[in-house]
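Summary for the steering committee. One of the milestones for this cycle was to obtain a three-dimensional model of the protein with heme C bound, which we needed before selecting residues for the alanine scan. The sequence and ligand used are listed below.
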Amino acid sequence: MKGMKHSKVSLTGAIITTVTFPILLVSVILDLHGTIHNIYFGFITYLVLGPLFIAGLLLIFIGIFFFKGKEDIGLFTFAYLKDQFTSPDRFAKLRKLIFLITALTFANIFIIALTSYSGYHFTESVGFCAQFCHSAMEPEHTAYKNSPHSRVACVECHIGKGAEWFVKSKISGSRQLLAVATGNFSRPIETPIHGLRPARETCEECHRPELFHGDKLKAIDKYLPDENNTHVQTVLLMKIGSGGYRGAEAHGIHWHVSPDNQITYRHADRGREQISEVTLSKADGTQLVFSSDEYTSEPRGENEHDAGSRLMDCIDCHNRPTHIYVGPNEALDHKLSHGEISQDLPYIKKMGYDLITQEYASQEEAKKSIATGLRTWYGRKYPELVAKQMPLLEQAIAGVQAAYTENVFPEMRIGWNTYRNFLGHKDDSGCFRCHDDSHVTASGKTISQDCDTCHIILAEEEENPEVLANLAGY
Ligand code: HEC
Ligand code: HEC
Ligand code: HEC
Ligand code: HEC
Ligand code: HEC
């Protein structure tokens, strides 16, 4: 304590800790209790006050040991200690001091433990990942909220298990915080991501493709741009297959992730769309190399500098398991099929499509133009309907606006189709990056594009497809 008095450094530290201690304690308790739900409150508590408190403590010790000042009282030298212990008077003083220090140390350890514990949970929360970096993460967060994984925390996918990932994620996280604070991040955020990319093990915590079996019936609802917004369906029998387990052979779509089939590939572009060579290594040691001469640029590996190749995993197909952005047609079809946009409004599919595919400077501008656009058009063409069915039109306006705002983010330069979904073959991407009959082995074998390899098409854009009626038994 005396040492402290003699050191300005320690004194500064002591002031900082004394001031922050009560505020920090109250804030952490309020946070744990859930009284204040504000992301900035958490930020101040855990990323400003917490480190400040620890810095204060460090300053106290640094001051005692390194900046004692001229009138060194010989703290911790042998002679000094001996003196303290042998004189009864001094010993009584020392005892008090020891009690005080022990009590303070416990209080400090308690608050540090509490702060680190809840601070750790704070930096792992969806709120911290998504809302704190609002403008940067808004697109991902919006798409995530409407996805099957909306109750899986960001960190469950983006941060693996173990100490190495912990360190990696905190380093990467600090860099990202800095980037957001300075506004220095790319718009849109580039994909595929390298730093915090979900690994196969992360998906396999919850999903086990080796246990998948059988086919899955998939009916896709669509609406035509005609007066009745005619409802049509495409029906596919998806060959989900299996990764192979307990003697069952790997087959179908999840054949790729069997331990017996290792697929590596080289790509010529950053987005991994131009695949120049695919190598299939089987458990029995045989290897098949399929190459395409379509891409002449130098193949790239994972890094700019690495000419190696990439091992195919879940995310080469499921690159949008949760940040699912859809195209303008699909976005409106979903809203129509969920009833958010009424099918009874004539030409709503066509009008909605025309409005959402225009260029807007911001989501606000888009929402305004969509609302005025629809109100004016229906007011002119269907005045009676508008007079009678105003709520229906207002609901449809909200639906069309949502179709836009859930998928297009002008502030982040995300337009329709900025992020490709590889689960399918839109624009000859996705599966057709390899399954295009133009990647061939030396002996002329190709990676099949036969339409029955992955699914059986039971109906294509049909009104009331017979196959569904048969299945339903009427
Ligand atoms: C189900 C797993 C999963 C969850 C949960 C998840 N992500 Fe992702 N995220 C992914 C995958 C897969 C990618 C694409 C990886 C790639 O292509 O390299 C991705 C990509 C991203 C990207 C890069 C830009 C892009 O869209 O490709 C950002 C930013 C991101 N996620 C943020 C978040 C945030 C914030 C949350 C929580 C609100 C979250 N993620 C939750 C799986 C997940
Ligand atoms: C913490 C658990 C968890 C993790 C980790 C996880 N998922 Fe899921 N996933 C789920 C749950 C739960 C559902 C089912 C949601 C439902 O039925 O609505 C689901 C659904 C899915 C579906 C089906 C979606 C649909 O349209 O029916 C796919 C595909 C999928 N996950 C892929 C992935 C991939 C790829 C990863 C790794 C990047 C992953 N998941 C990580 C829990 C998880
Ligand atoms: C070759 C591409 C590919 C790879 C690799 C792949 N999947 Fe899939 N997966 C698909 C396709 C295609 C579907 C069917 C999607 C649909 O419903 O139309 C699917 C469906 C699924 C489903 C939903 C199954 C169901 O019955 O509804 C889950 C869960 C899933 N995959 C998880 C995984 C996980 C985990 C991995 C990695 C271990 C993985 N997939 C690897 C292409 C792939
Ligand atoms: C990186 C390249 C690559 C991509 C991307 C890819 N595949 Fe494949 N796939 C292969 C190779 C290689 C084979 C084996 C070809 C052979 O031996 O005939 C294969 C085989 C298959 C088979 C047959 C498996 C069996 O039972 O033998 C199915 C089904 C399949 N793929 C579905 C898909 C689907 C669906 C997608 C997209 C979601 C996809 N693949 C994307 C490389 C790829
Ligand atoms: C390598 C696997 C693979 C091959 C080969 C393949 N498909 Fe597909 N196809 C898919 C997957 C995966 C989807 C996505 C299903 C979904 O929406 O989840 C799909 C979707 C479709 C759809 C529905 C798209 C929509 O949204 O309306 C049609 C139609 C289709 N395929 C037609 C074909 C035709 C025609 C061929 C033959 C030239 C073919 N496919 C070959 C994997 C394949």
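Key point for the committee: The mean pLDDT is 87.
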